[in-house]
Amino acid sequence: MSNHGPGPGRRTLLVAGTAALAVGGLAGIALWGDDGTGKSRDGKAPAGPAIAGAFDIARSTRLWQPTPLGNVTGPQSLAFDDVNRHVYVVQLAQGGLRLDGEDGPVGAAGRKRAGDLCVTRFSRSGEQLGRMYLRGFGHGISMGVEPRSDAVWLWMESEAHPRNGFGRAVARIRFEDGAVLDSHDRAVRHHRIAPRGSTRVHPAVDMTTERLLVSYVGTDGKHGYSVHSLKKVVAGDGTPLHRIDSAAFLESETFQGCALHGDFIYQLTGNPYSTSDGRNPRDSGGNTFVSAIDIRTGQAAGHQHVSVAPSLRFREPEGIAVRMAPDPLLCMGFSVKTTGRRNIALFGFEPATGRRHT
């Protein structure tokens, strides 16, 4: 995916707090072959724990083989419904579709510019169970799921900017299989809780603490996060519980999504494989990283290289979320290129030994 517009893009961000970046380092590199042995491509086991927040990036589990999505485009983000044991994956709506109310098919560039999304609901095993389309919502950089007794509510970026298709607010919408929902529909309530003028605004949800994470790029071009009470935001109170104005990014890392779990924000960065003479060749092991930020201090709590499944084709990191049941896993998706479409491969990373999940 490419950046749009001036200033820092959807992805490439520069860190302001250099002291925080020293935490974690590259001491524990997570390497895991496609055969599930826990060994790297040279047959060696990981050197030891690779801690990011409450998870060990050296201890991985393959959850899904490359799996088709509702549309042929690549995944953008994912989230778990641990009550109903479902997984939701969002992607840009594919070109060539004609949805309800449209005069004719819309091309891929038009869908991307408008911020049109497809959300697919899966079983835990990767079986498609339904989908809906969201027109004018954004790029789907991250998302959240809020299961309640009356419905499953999705938290999405919303109010896409007309020039670049990225969201400027967040919205809570009911998932309805087969529905097509417009961002300007009266049923959609846009929560404009990022600082005024922010762009690339997108949410994530931690149901264990009933908190909402909002990621944004401010008018000064700096990336930031805010954490809110989920129930208070629904009630109209967007006062942040925490605000982190300088996220723990390394220079030139490409942002691919975020999640909130307990006292840590988890952020995913990286690029697809390049050609052998490019910036991210296959034989390098990839440039995917996961970082953790402690919301209580704003300091980094681990920055780890992720080299799981190095033989995946294309292998672009796309989406990060925490699955709570039956046991906590920090999960990451990878976009996998196949003929005519992109699939998603999904991996989970286990809790760090002795770490308490709060």
Give a written overview of the molecule.
The chain is 4% helix and 42% strand. It has 358 residues and is mainly beta. It starts with 17 loop residues before the first helix and ends in a 7-residue tail after the last strand. The protein contains 3 helices and 23 strands. The N terminus is likely disordered.
Biggest sheet overview: 5 strands, mixed
Average of per-residue pLDDT values: 87
Question: What structural class results from the helix and strand content?
Answer: mainly beta
Percent of residues in helices comes to under 10%
Unreliable sequence segments: 1-45
Give the CA-based shape.
Answer: globular
Topology at a glance:
Blueprint: H1 18-21, E1 30-32, E2 51-52, E3 55-68, E4 75-81, E5 86-92, H2 108-114, E6 117-123, E7 128-135, E8 144-147, E9 152-158, E10 169-174, E11 180-182, E12 190-191, E13 199-206, E14 211-217, E15 223-229, H3 230-234, E16 242-244, E17 255-261, E18 264-269, E19 289-294, E20 300-308, E21 316-323, E22 329-338, E23 341-351
Parallel strand pairs: 1-20, 7-11
Antiparallel strand pairs: 2-3, 3-23, 4-5, 5-6, 6-7, 8-9, 9-10, 10-12, 13-14, 14-15, 15-16, 17-18, 18-19, 19-20, 21-22, 22-23
